[in-house]
Amino acid sequence: MRHTVLCLLSRAERLLMTLFWLLLLLAFNAPPLAMLTLLCALLHELGHITAAALLGRRTGAPMERPNGLLLPLQGSLSYAEECFVAAMGPIANLLVALLCLLARPLGHSFFSTFAILSLFTAVANLLPVGGYDGERMLRSLLSLRLDAVRAHAVCAALSLGLSAVLTLVSLYGMLRVGGGYWIFGVFFATLLVEIKRSLAHAKKAQDP
Questions:
Q1: Which has more confidence, 158 or 23?
Q2: How crowded is the C-beta side of 113, counted as CA atoms within 13 Å?
Q3: C-alpha angle 123-190-98 in degrees, rounded to nearest 5
Q4: For residue 101, how many other CB atoms are within 10 A of its CB?
Q5: Contacts within 8 Å (CB) and 24+ apart, 158-162
Q6: % of residues, the chain, pLDDT over 70
Q7: How far apart are alpha carbons 58 and 153 in whole angstroms?
Q8: Got the DSSP string for 148-182?
Q9: 3-state secondary structure of 127
């Protein structure tokens, strides 16, 4: 039964990777907003690439996942280095938001819009949810005090619970407001990934 559920979740995960980008392109009435959102994501990944380069690490080609992109690193990182690389993505977005706010007196609405989107990207990625920078940072910090297995278990439980709450809240907002289906899609995809990861971990623990 668990194997069947894992197969279904794997198929759903592949489908959601395609739907994610379609939802992003259709999420805004104004196409420039979608393009600015993609630019925020690219600047976010540039922060990770810069941090990895400072540590002498190379990055591989970005990989699709149901709720965004994954930038693989070549070689292993210490817990402190992992936390640094993870933090640099949101920090890059926060710096861009600050620069846009400083440029607001120039009077162009672009700066205000880009600042809001950059801030949203930073805050969203700081959530302690699987696949997000917040979860990587929390797991790295916990691993400095706990063993890796306990740190992983704590983060997995927190991620699963928070993903469920965010999915329900975004669903309520979507039904209440009549929009925001892209946000719901992201959190719902994250929840499915977390369920799959929990089932796979339980299956591995039971296998001889």
A1: 158
A2: 12
A3: 15
A4: 16
A5: 158/128, 159/128, 159/129, 159/130, 159/135, 159/194, 160/130, 160/191, 160/194, 160/195, 160/198, 162/127, 162/128, 162/129
A6: 75
A7: 29
A8: HHHHHHHHHHHHHHHHHHHHHHHHHHHHHHS--HH
A9: coil
Residues belonging to the chain:
208
User: What one-letter code names the amino acid at 91?
Assistant: I
User: Among all chains, which residue has been given the structure tokens 């600042």?
Assistant: 115
Phi, psi dihedral angles at 175 (to 5 degrees) = -70, -35
- How does pLDDT run across 94-137, given as a tens digit for each residue? 999 999 988 877 667 788 889 998 999 999 899 998 878 999 99
Residues 157 and 203: their CA atoms lie apart, in Å, by 16
Residue 180's alpha-carbon distances to 52, 84, 122, 175, in angstroms, are 34, 32, 18, 9
If residue 116 lies in a helix (H) or strand (E), which one and from where to where? helix 109-125
3-state secondary structure of 60: coil
Q: Which residues contact 58 (CB under 8 A, 6 or more apart)?
A: 52, 73, 74, 75
Please state the pTM of the whole predicted model: 0.78
What single DSSP character describes residue 126? T
